[in-house]
Fold each of these.
Amino acid sequence: MTAVIDLLAERIGGLAPRYGIILGSGLGSLVGELTNAVRISYRDLPGFPVSSVSGHAGELVAGYLADEPVVMLSGRVHYYEKGDANAMRPPIEAMMSLGIEALILTNSAGSLREDIPPGSVMQITDHINYSGMNPLIGEESDRRFVGMTNAYDAELAARMRAAAEKLQIPLSQGVYMWFSGPSFETPAEIRMARILGADAVGMSTVPEVLIARFLGLRVAAASVITNYGAGMTGGELSHEETKDMAPVGGARLAAMLKEMITGGDGGNE
């Protein structure tokens, strides 16, 4: 980690971001909003995982969103790529070394509700870890027993809703269920997820929430809905559909996050 911190200090200089953002499939457009951006490939950062998923750029990007310094991870590594739920810990710890206090997570997800259609945005209010995997397995200190009652920060959530309302962007709220992937869910699994109280399903984000809370970061999260769950429409699911639909809701989410971070008073609290 020391090598990464030294490299970031050299490349990014005195940038002191309070917010870190992880961008999911097809959501990289927000990177284009940054000014004075510094882009560093994960391959050039010691210890960073490299994604094998198309649609994930694999870059750490730091710069200014309006006047607010931020750092973004354009692309993530998923549990299903190498069976490592802890894969995103080095990148999150690297953002912490830059001074972030809050982590905003985005993903593409499948909706389980007819009133949250493809192209819409859902704020994640809670999650269900259906995979059973946990990035804190093997952690030896008692810090591993992380409370998750308030995993998603209430103040950040309120600011996200206020940004959506100001921009007149519909924003649903719901529970996200994490399946390990990489195969999509079956219709029976989708029926089960709905019975258990899930509103959307996906293959990421939950491990990052667990890591962030373990590290003491505040968390907010949102899903861009790219499809309905298996069996809800009769059609088959595909990664191409995810990549095609993600930019539709992604543009709405990007505008919302920009307003959330910088709106009103330039991001100062």
Note: The chain has one domain: 2-264.
Amino acid sequence: MTDAAFATAAQVLAQHGATSPIDCAIVLGTGLGGLVDQLDDAIRIPYAAIPGFPTGAVSGHARQVCIGKLEGRTVLIFQGRAHYYEGGDAAVMRVPLGMLSALGSPPLILTNAAGSLKPEMPPGSMAVIADHINFNGPNPLVGDGGDGRFVPMVGAYDPKLRAALKAAASAERLSLGEGVYMWFSGPSFETPAEIRMAQVMGADLVGMSTVPEVILARRHGIRVAGLSVVTNMGAGLHGGAPHHGETKDVASAAAADLARLLRAFLRGL
């Protein structure tokens, strides 16, 4: 994809009336889409209306761009993401994230539903991502041209954004853990043996998203933070036997805390 594709996507937003500078962008993971209902003066644009955006659907992901005001900030929310497991394309979110570069590269908060490998981060809790392990392997920049594809990943999860999220959690008296996120391809959940391997390799959280998006965002120089809502313990840990229904149900129950955290973060932006 070229810069022209990103500019075209941004023009579609403008045609729908979204012309204000974006202060922050947020990707909402499985079961976490309710935040869009808190936007004031919201503009909602289906992914299908924007050239280059992913099609298809996964339950728990509405797939629309929502732009509006939250805590006095203009926020762009991707309500639902596309995943590598849907078609084997690690760069499936290339245009949505590239579009942000055409909108001034606002800071990006990536949220997800994740499995926990730590008893101190039980289902229903939240964690800020400190780093990741691309265990899955595919990289969304394969086939990208030029030296810009050699993206450095030290500090990929922006330290200042992470600190701001921790400060927001403290202000709201919300518990916020921190850990390393390991990307598995899905759509099947991890085996108990894979979870034990992940522990040995230094992971604290596991999931099926986020990592390709971080790489794509960093390709465009966008500052990134990641937030996981823990929906289950990893397979075989403390009775963990994850399934998609559990992921959606627990994420939906924890969505109110996530909304409080993000609103407090936006107030301090």
Note: Strands lie at 24-28, 40-46, 64-70, 73-79, 108-116, 126-133, 176-183, 205-207, 224-233.
